[in-house]
Prior knowledge:
The structure holds 2 protein chains of 2 kinds. Chain A is of the alpha+beta class. Chain A has helices spanning about 1-15, 15-55, 80-90, 145-150, 200-205, 235-275, 280-285, 290-325, 335, 355-375, 385-390, and strands spanning about 60, 75-80, 90-100, 110-115, 140-145, 160-165, 170-180, 195, 210, 215, 230. In chain A, helix 1 crosses helix 2 and helix 2 (about 15-55) runs antiparallel to helix 10. Chain B has one domain (about 20-245): Lipoprotein localisation LolA/LolB/LppX (outer membrane lipoprotein receptor (LolB), chain A, Clam). In chain B, about 15% of the residues lie in helices and about 45% in strands. Chain B is built from 4 helices and 14 strands. Chain B is globular. Mean pLDDT of chain B is about 85; it is low at about 15-20.
Amino acid sequence: MITKLAYKNILGNGWRSLINIFILSLVLTGMIWMQGLYDGWSRIARRQMQEWEFAGGHYAHQDYDKYDSFSLDKSFAAVPPKLQDLIDTGDAVPILYSAGIIYPHGRLTPVVIKGIPAEQNILRIPTTHLRIQDPDTQILPVLIGRQMAKSINVVKGDILTMRWKEVNGAYNAYDIQIVQIMDTPVPSTDMGQIWIDYDKLNEVKALKNSCSVIVLKNQAASTYVGSPWNFVSIDQSMKGVDAMIQTKRVGGYVFFVLLLFLAMIAVFDAQMLAVFKRRKEIGTLIALGMTKRQIIGLFTMEGTMYMLLGSVLTATLGLPLFFYFGFQGFPIPQQMSDFNIAGASEPIRCYYSPIMILSTFMIVMAVTVFASWLPSSKIARMKATYALLGKV
Amino acid sequence: MRKLLILTLLISVSVGMVFAITAEDILMNIDKNMTAKTTWSSSRMIISTRRATRTLSSVNYSKGNDISYSEYTAPAKEKGTKMLKMKDNLWLYDPSTDRVIQISGNMLKQSVMGSDLSYEDFMDDLELLESYTAILDNDITYDNRKCYKLILTAKTSGLSYFKRILYVDKERMIPLYQELYAKSGIKLKTMKLSDVRKVGNRWYPMHIVFKDELKAGSGTTIINDDIEFNISIPDYYFSKAILKK
Lengths: 392, 245
């Protein structure tokens, strides 16, 4: 009976009910879409970083700190025999890092030189371009990313000079030729990075088969190697990007918490007005034997129904939107795709997990039920005679 | 008469052979002129870039090749900046933040105050005879002075510049021009030394132009306005305590 009565009351409220349902639907749609966007972004970033940088995880030299460029020239060691077997079978790829300086158009520009085997196929970096045909060549082929090319103002085919220090401290320098400008979506493989053949970098650094990191094709291949190598899992590698996306997600939450608050005010206001307008009706219901708990239940049920109808509207109006952004993706503006964030270079396909949808629904539901219950709780303390006289 | 001529010729050749200067002798003489137990100087560093030229003044104290201290006195923006080098360590005091920072690692490759000298160059004081093997090449005339041309190759693998070419003034035993090379043979930097003056019992260049050959711009000029050698400098000048004084 309460459900039927609540439904009739909602219909009786007319436009006010419609507006409440619409606002709740808007909040629900927005919250699901926003969370789907950030979850989608996180998934793309993870996929791209695995494809271009970490694959199945990597071993890093214990002295290497990606946030400290000073660590570059001391964080290398000979490839351990256990991992050499994986490299030989194509299940791992060694990468040597070195600090260096290039001089595009006569400007001194510090870079990180990364030596990677030309024949590797674990990472998507197009390393085949790094093959050196003539071992005595004085011009070394290198790869750079599009953002890097833009920032130093070079194009494919340009030749410039690169300088670095050998392990023993002597300066070495070669002319390098940009043989390919790659479209990498991962900024840490692009900005300030010069990719060169692994063996050649070892040679010109006066090293032999030494590297700074060893990237594994599959995480399952990870094994204890011992000092000076530390295994870094994909989750550990993703920490920085995850934290950045989480920061942006929290920023989005603030907006939707405000919107949810406004929706709560709207429901609360509608219920408050209903209590005021229907005080004689409430008095009559109490006089007819309805308990106070049933009266509160009636108003709370009305609030819950607002939410349920809002969900129906969300399903009707929001679904096409969810499907569109789930399949076509949300195009990132050019200004933002230039930021140093992985996953921002291609349209973000929203990802809506059932847990996320259910938890969002539950949050909005709880808030709506609370906003409906609050005004009606006063009724519980009302005497039927006062209600019939219109004294609340 | 014919025998006398041959004898004279033989004596001349022998005397010539006895007194022929070797590359090592030249390096030893350069080191004698360019290095000292202690040095004090008042100098200006003129930095020319594509956009502007600016001048920094400093007073400098050094002890041997490993220890030196400099304090910038002008312009106002750099006044009070101090730099202390002790062997492989370099500290910089920045008066605007009142902090001492140690320059190390990759930062040593950065240029000093935007000049063509890196912090590593600043630290790269060495005795040539000790560090390089020299070959005497053909004589050359440079800046209207008769010069020896020396080709230097590093004795050890740890030197910054694997190869150097020097034009050394025959009379004053001062390198008037230097080319510094990477191991691959690419010319990295050049130095032009001029205004050679007698300071005490040695010759010394008062004007040095340092140019990074890979970088645009006309280089960095160092002018020694005043210089003194082998004077007494208190040890206090070569301690970290001087930086925050």
